[in-house]
Amino acid sequence: MTGKELGLCIPDRPLRIAILASEFNRFVTEQLVAGARAGLEQHGVAPDSVLLAWVPGAFELPLAADRVLAGGKADAVIALGAVIRGETAHFDYVAGECSRGLAQVSLEHGAPVIFGVLTTDTVDQALARAAVDRGNRGFDCAVAALHMLGLLDQFNGQQA
Description:
Elements: E1 17-22, H1 26-42, E2 50-55, H2 61-70, E3 76-84, H3 90-109, E4 113-120, H4 123-130, H5 137-155
Parallel strand pairs: 1-2, 1-3, 3-4
Helix pairs in contact: 1-4, 1-5, 2-3
């Protein structure tokens, strides 16, 4: 490999992280939140610098993320939820608009907005991805948020 490679680098500065969680399918989302909290704590983020806010559903996550970042309440947002396919097209609209909206908020604010919304065909698939003891996507999203903050610091020439 040639050139400089930037890898996982957690910023060495106080961080404020917002976890936005969907109430809909809360039995899944609570496990994702637990995983995210564990991931942040394991990587040195103080629990009192983590904001947790519950929104009605995944569709509402982009607006909440926008307001958190616009208000300067967080350096990064971790958006968590579970959209489980049903018998109607509702799944497609909610999952697609949530994803699009979160990406738009991230680009508009120049801040990491991590897409931790499970989009599964079944409840069992969602629970498998939210399992606290194995492969919790909330944990993975927390690490992704920290990684992105570290990369942005490196891109901006700050110490990371």
